[in-house]
Design a protein that fits this description.
Layout (H helix, E strand, L loop, with lengths): L4 H9 L11 H29 L3 H13 L8 H10 L7 H13 L4 H29 L6 H94 L4 H34 L7 H22 L8 H5 L8 H10 L4 E6 L7 H21 L5 E8 L2 E8 L16 H11 L3 E6 L5 E8 L8
Parallel strand pairs: 1-2
Antiparallel strand pairs: 2-3, 3-5, 4-5
Helix pairs in contact: 2-3, 4-5, 4-6, 5-6, 5-7, 6-7, 7-8, 7-9, 7-12, 8-9, 11-12, 12-13
GO molecular function: kinase activity
EC number: 2.7.13.3
Keywords: ATP-binding, Kinase, Membrane, Nucleotide-binding, Phosphoprotein, Transferase, Transmembrane, Transmembrane helix, Two-component regulatory system
Length: 456
């Protein structure tokens, strides 16, 4: 059987604390009180009906109590309750039973068609009983009213007993369903907001991790390359200190310049971190900190590309603030040549400009590859090839075997190749690295030309 809207509502809200089918204790108390009043009413009316038909009065009272007490089932069996009220209509019993039953039926989740049919049957039954009773009572007084007048009063009485509880029940049921719908919508919005908050937090964590990874790559590219060149120059300085004092002096100057620039860049990056951790910059989020660090790293890397070679155009990339570009590869190669490496730069195709991210990634690949040559293949010849193709730029850095037979003893964290692969893959490119048959090492990358358009 169907349940009323109150039971469904309380069940959905998880607030059922009443016995059996009652959602709440106060509902249980209300139904018991209504059932007691209805039982007393039906018992009295049952005695009157028993006198009229010549039946034993105790039997009429017992039937009345049983019928009236069925009102306690109104929330559980509203349809059965209305059918009982219709069945006892000829006995002129169950006024409260009929009114409460119709109200409960209209307020429940019973289909509206069934509610209308049962209400109509109740109206018809009340109309017939009222019509017969009016005719009998008026005939006993010797008054013969018109049929239409009796029908009018009978219809008025029938509708007066059935229409108000049905309309009230329909209103309460509709209001209850509306409130439940609004509550479900509010719960859904709350869940959606909670989900959006969780997703926003996940995105924030992901963004912070991405920024940290990007900053780590920038610092690795800036500092590792410069320090590697410093070590190479220091080794060359040690080798020629006695044989060629003039060359040793130049190398010492280069080492000093590189060291000072590296310290300056580190101070800038660490200054941003220290300012953020001390809370000196109010309202700055982790993403803003990361962005500022990235800008500092990009500016520093721009200085790397132009500041270490004597005669370099100082400030060329610095002014743009966008990081190194492909046009600065000649300066980058010049740094390695100044450190004693034999490097050949080959450019194929018509030179063109690409997005900032594309050119910066291409520059970083060449920079890291040359740094690895300094670290692991001192004295080896390196070849840098850049090919401008339709819609993409291809890079290849290949070196031969080390002439010294061992690496330069520089520490390596193993993140250089990983960082290059991450940079290229992020733009939808292809990165391949590995040893050559001649005993050297080759790094190759193909980057789509449109991968970084509009990027920063």
């Amino acid at each position: 059987m169907t349940t009323t809207g109150a039971i469904a509502e309380a069940g959905a809200r998880g607030a059922s604390d009443g016995p059996w089918w009652w959602a709440r204790k106060r509902g249980f108390v209300l139904d018991v009180l209504l059932a007691l009043v209805s039982a007393v009413e039906c018992a009295v009316e049952g005695v009157v009906f028993a006198e009229q038909v010549g039946a034993p009065e105790p039997l009429g009272a017992a039937v009345g109590v049983l019928v009236g007490a069925s009102l306690v089932l109104r929330r559980r069996l509203p349809i059965v309750l209305v059918l009982v009220a219709i069945a006892i209509t000829p006995a002129e019993m169950g006024f409260l039973l009929s009114v409460v039953g119709l109200y409960t039926l209209a307020a429940s989740e019973v289909p509206r068609r069934l509610t209308v049919v049962l209400a109509g049957v109740s109206v018809v039954g009340t109309f017939v009983v009222a019509f017969v009773r009016f005719k009998q009572d008026l005939s006993q007084d010797g008054y013969e009213p018109g049929v239409w007048l009796v029908m009018f009063f009978s219809a008025l009485m029938a509708l007066g007993l059935a229409a108000p509880p049905v309309l009230m029940g329909l209103y309460v049921g509709a209001r209850r369903r509306l409130v439940e719908s609004l509550r479900e919508r509010a719960d859904g919005l709350e869940r959606e907001l909670s989900l959006l908050a969780d997703r926003a937090e996940e995105r924030a964590v992901w963004a912070r991790n991405e920024e940290r990874t990007r900053i780590a790559r920038e610092m690795h590219d800036v500092v590792a390359h410069r320090v590697s060149l410093m070590v190479v120059h220091a080794a060359a300085l040690q080798a020629v200190a006695l044989k060629d004092p003039e060359k040793a002096s130049r190398n010492a100057g280069l080492v000093g310049d590189m060291g000072r620039q590296a310290l300056t860049e580190l101070r800038e990056m660490l200054g941003v971190l220290r300012t953020s951790s001390d809370g000196a910059v109010a309202g700055m989020s982790a993403a803003a900190d990361s962005q500022r660090l990235a800008e500092v790293a990009s500016a520093a890397s721009a200085r790397v590309s132009v500041g270490a070679v004597p005669g370099g155009a100082a400030g060329g990339a610095d002014a743009g603030g966008e990081g190194p570009r492909l046009v600065e590869l000649e300066d980058l190669v010049g740094q390695s040549r100044a450190a004693g490496m034999v490097v050949e730069l080959c450019v194929e195709g018509e030179e063109r400009s690409y997005g900032v991210r594309v050119e910066r990634t291409a520059y970083r690949v060449v920079q890291e590859a040359l740094t690895n040559v300094h670290k692991h293949a001192p004295g080896a010849k390196a070849t840098v090839r850049v090919a401008h193709r339709e819609g993409e730029v291809a890079l290849q850095v290949e070196n031969g075997p080390s002439e010294g037979g061992a690496d330069a003893g520089l520490p390596s964290g193993g993140n250089g190749l990983v960082g290059m692969r991450e940079r290229v893959s992020a733009l939808g490119g292809v990165f391949v690295s590995g040893p050559t048959d001649a005993g050297g090492f080759r790094v190759s990358a193909v980057i789509p030309g449109a991968g970084g358009v509009g990027g920063v």
